[in-house]
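Batch 3, record 17
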Amino acid sequence: MRVQLSINGDKYEADVEPRLLLVHLLRENLRLTGTHIGCDTTHCGACTVLMDGRPVKSCTVFAVQAHGRQLMTVEGLEQDGKLHPLQESFMSEHGLQCGYCTPGMLMTSYAFLQKNQAPSEDDVRTAISGNLCRCTGYVNIVKAVQHAAAKIAGGA
Amino acid sequence: MDTRTTPEVGGMGHSLKRKEDPRFIRGRGTYVDDVQLPGMLYLDIVRSPHAHARIVKIDSSKALAVPGVLAVITGQDLAKYNLHWMPTLMSDTQMVLPVEKVMYQAQEVAAVLATSRYAAADGAAQVEVEYDPLPVVVDPHKALEPGAPVLRTDKKDKKDNHIWHWEWGDKAATDRAIAESDVTVKQDIYIPRIHVASIETCGCIAHFDKVMDKLTVWMTTQAPHAIRTVFALVAGHVGLAEHKIRIISPDIGGGFGGKVPVYPGYVIAVAASVLTGKPVKWIEDRMENLQADSFARDYHITAELAAKKDGTLTALRIKTLADHGYTDAAANPSKFPAGLFHVCTGSYDLKAAHVEVDGAYTNKPPGGIAYRCSFRVTEAVHTIERMTDLMAHQLNIDPAEFRMKNFVKPEQFPYKSALGWEYDSGNYAGALKKAMDMIGYADLRREQAEKRARGELMGIGISSFTEIVGAGPSKHFDILGLKMFDSCEIRVHPTGKAIARFGTKSQGQGHETTYAQILAEELGIPAKDIQVEEGDTDTAPYGLGTYASRSTPVAGAAAAMAARKVRDKAKKIAAHLLEVAEDDLDWEPGKFTVKGVPGKSKTIQDCAFAAYTNHPQGMEAGLEAVSYYDPPNLTYPFGSYICVVDIDSGTGEVKVRRFVAIDDCGNIINPMIVQGQVHGGLTMGLAPALYEEISYDEHGNVQGGSFIDYLLPTAVETPKWETGHTITPSPHHPIGAKGIGESATVGAPAAIANAVVDALWHLGVRHIDIPITPAKVWKLLRQHGVTD
Amino acid sequence: MIPAAFEYHTPGSVGEATALLARLGEDAKVLSGGQSLIPLMKLRLTTPRHVVDINGIQGLDGLREADGFLRIGALVREADLEESSLVRSRYPLLHDTCKVIADPLVRNLATLGGNLAHGDPANDHPATMLALGAEVVAVGPRGERRIPITSFFTGPFATALAGDEILVEIRVPVPPARSGGAYLKLERKVGDFATAAVAVQLTLSAAGTVENAGIGLTNVGLTPIKATAAEAALRGQRLDATTIKHAAEQAAAAAQPAEDLRGSVEYKRDLIRVLTGRALRRAAERAAGQ
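Prediction for the assembled complex:
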């Protein structure tokens, strides 16, 4: 089947099997390997991308469902060589260790901060409750998201 | 934090931002599954639904008819090359692919090779296997009963399921001390099977290049050199010599011990690549990872702790049954089949102790690897901290006071424990006091009394653990004969920058930053000017890898020693440049100065340039050194954790209200990274304490074989960890550092378990096994007459 | 983790969709949010030869009050329900329920319609709809029909929908004044199915007695359970410790839990008792506040 979509602002077109999972389209066809696979039961969230602005688990979407849609992956966060405040905050607040869950955390947080500009700690914890991390214990991820929120509010 | 270097240099004590982060936050890490090679084939594995069964027939015809499927590999195929069995890290044997029978549910039975991931999956779904079920042995106690079915029929002369018996300590003295003590508490403790479940599963790409006659394997491994040597020893007979094998451990998405063993999938992929000459990728999915990869824990413990009636602990006696699954594939130093379990006298000055462990075979996946806990140290700490708390409660002595009374005192270090370990340094009372102050211990006890009077259930639990890491001195430590030194090779370039390679392999611990900081401290070269590499066996010096918190104690020491060799040579160069004697030179980070002559100095960068352009005659050019560090002892990080829980008497839910962790890992390289390790470790202590368990029904069917039932905590379940530290350097370590990665996973479960028992003690509850689920607590409450 | 191959259809209208389903029969599955279907397909627990994606059909995502009902289109995403101020203020039971469906990411795709049509007794909305006295609007080649929620769930993973019908709308009666509701779910962690959960919807009289009570139980039977005896015991009664205790015990008696890794039969039954009591209290507070 033909699928046409926009990925990080660029147009893309391919012929794919209906059963091709979106995460595989991204990783193998588009060679955007920043989106990761961590489970097979839609739990871990390592595969989180934005579809029409909403964070979704790309392992539980068929690529054909993304036809006509706008997709954003972690590779789309940096614009014209400038990192997004979330990317800077994850670095400054030590919100990552092995880095494997990080793209998912970033994409979920990116969408979240568009809806909630001054989140409490509990707000952030709930927002990322679909993204599992084994390394950080979440404390610094929460700090990073709140730190980025403050940066964005301050005009970053 | 005291620092000797400026933030620009970034030596010890600076919370330097991590050098590895820029690629990860851009999604530009290179994990094994990210690598694609031209002509790459895919492997998918067919797995057994039975826990114990004879293989009657494997019919690959339907699978071979699936478009894209090239081959179906079975044990019979591998047997032709004698690759169907391989050794384990504990010198037992394990199947790569079975010929006669399967011995655990989800065991690898056949492998499908195809041109795409999807075709391989379709092929695997079409392989038809006929099994003849055999009696299943799931209970390790039953496994050791006379008349139990013998599982390892492959071992000639094996008539039972007993693997080994191991004991340590003075049995007679311990028996006597217990008999003579005023009070003894005895408790059965079961620490169930759990799984590290790093977010990245295991996998590899094996690429045998026929033209270059070289095998390259990208692999999720924590110990690339050991893997290379093992492959050379196991597959040498099919022409794989060690210089023709390259293991590349790229970015690894979490290890925690789960990426130490050699899994059958790796070997099958290598065999497939050697046979086809094409790259072969094998990436397991999550259910395979949980159901077939090496587990941790599964210890059935009976512990007895004795004391005088004034609360002085006297003796400890432990008997343990270790369930190893169908083969002993633990990853322990070879002399210690129960790992470092005999650190179980813990932080207390126990005069007599005896430990015995028996290993048993059952129809379960093999293992006994560490889940972020050195080697069996969580098991040891959980036991002693539960028992200590039990004794304190039994004697009606406050558990903090009880611990203070029995701690090894600072003046007793280096301390020789009753089980033979020489603890390097410690200040146990200092850590506990700091934790008590931070959490407001006295106020909490008052609050608990008030709540108890109202029928509300609140508990306070303490865990004052001593960790044992940094394996290890060559006298006692080896894995498959390979001594457990580690290495650093540093080369300084003419323009004063450097590259340093190590025998360890970070899976998120931040080595690219922390090792650079150690070198920056020793040499004064800014950390940002030092490129750190690990994981490619073609370039990195030999090492035993990263697990059991050994990197800082062993490779970190090697870094310091190699840097000092570089500094010694640089000093000679500086003396030559300044035309003075070496003894006339002082050193401050980055600079040699002439004693008493301000302004007359040479930087380390000056020396580096001169090493290539103006080296003294009679001296070799260049500025580099390598150190293979054989540690004189292990290191003993320690800490005190205090946990406050509130229990819902209606639902049985346990809520961790507060958790204070005071850790001491000696001198701190990067406080930010250390704190991050503690946060993560605590969360991997919370998880087994309240959520995680892999169990089996009587047919050997796994329960908890996916993330539906194997419960990893989310940010909502995870409390806001409160952390602090004390600093008690290791006297034998070149930079006084001890290692921190696993302390929190070792110490936390006991703090939580102790808190829950503390909350319920007045009802008559004495013990609860982890995971402490709401269902378990509810049952205890109702049994003790408590309802909502 | 790789589904079996299938043919993919994207009908542009309800009529096209039901015609497809009629033609393809048992070999077809409807795809709405996909957050239940696709995981099953990835594990090959279901291998439909045809997948009928209804996400392209216009007009199935409305959310408004009209004709005495809150009318929720079958394709309304859980996240949108959760964020709706209308739902939060006037249908607190429904709002509570949305917040505990899976996790926030799944809720961006999962639909209320799918949650009901999937027929899983472990899903959360069925009990809530039972408590709310909702009805489901189904459309097939034979036309449109309204199915009371009490007739909708016929067995585990089985509903009253015919193979060629799709669910287009859920209608919740607009509650009278002095109404309130609450959903309490015990889950082992965020994202889990309920160990047990209770949905309560109450309407109080001016005198403060219970005019109407709806109580639905999640994941303690082969289908979601309407605790009719508990509801009847409350009608006309003032809510106090005794009447709440009695109703909670009745609800527990109505539960038919099975033992699994989440807990024993006794535990789940007692959870129903505890959660019913707590949900009644919270629903009553909210009803009084209305």
